[in-house]
């Protein structure tokens, strides 16, 4: 399956048509999710703050865009491992942490994308890229399909993607320091920094970026690179296993290296090098202490998205450090597929 490198990732003729069709398709799911999660968000907020009441009406000040280029949209994805006609599309229990995102970001638009939503999105936006449709449709692992979908959603729409097993710790509007707000178009966080420690068998890099939470302006070239990387990796997987892509039984490391954080790290690092040629190796980003802007990409130190881990100098003493923006719970719902 050849990569159509000359074709744009996003169909330039589709946004208006998509906006209408997408709104229709998701209205019922969106309203139901909003009602359920708004109640949960209110309870979360009241429990956390100890307040007896909370007004949903935003102030004029809060409506001012605080993340200049990044749309005020929160995306989550829920795809079934083994889809069957009688299997519920949405597992309510997996949304228990979503309340934190709604409570801390009351002016953001929230969208939960299920299997049908993902399929509709892919076909509406990428009719000019049959290689994208073919790869996405035949992904052999629900984690790989979810990975690919998050990059495509952020490429087309932008916003904040976050896994359902993450907890928001600070409002998104506070993620970017004010003096670089107008220059930031992507936010990525470090999830692993080997430093002087031993190598890990399932992490091929000395430093790795997470993709459980990513924020971006629409149309950033890092996603074009990532999607083309995925298409090539999927083709190679099928060739190496000597079966069609949808029959491949990938090992965990193969998922990591084709669509997951190892592949994402390669692509993000390549983009960073284009923006800042002085960056020669991943270790140049090691021991980072504060958010750092490289070109238009803001890189967060380990605690930004990766607190609570027993490595990489991540804060893991039960406290929440002031620079922690979100926490990942590592439930690994894609595994065992």
From TrEMBL:
Pfam families: Gly_transf_sug (PF04488). It comes from the Eukaryota. Signal peptide: none annotated. The chain crosses the membrane at residues 30-47. GO terms for biological process: protein N-linked glycosylation. Keywords: Membrane, Transmembrane, Transmembrane helix. GO terms for cellular component: mannan polymerase complex. GO terms for molecular function: alpha-1,6-mannosyltransferase activity. The keyword Transmembrane applies. Belongs to the glycosyltransferase 32 family. This is Initiation-specific alpha-1,6-mannosyltransferase. It comes from Clonostachys rhizophaga. The lineage of its organism: Eukaryota, Fungi, Dikarya, Ascomycota, Pezizomycotina.
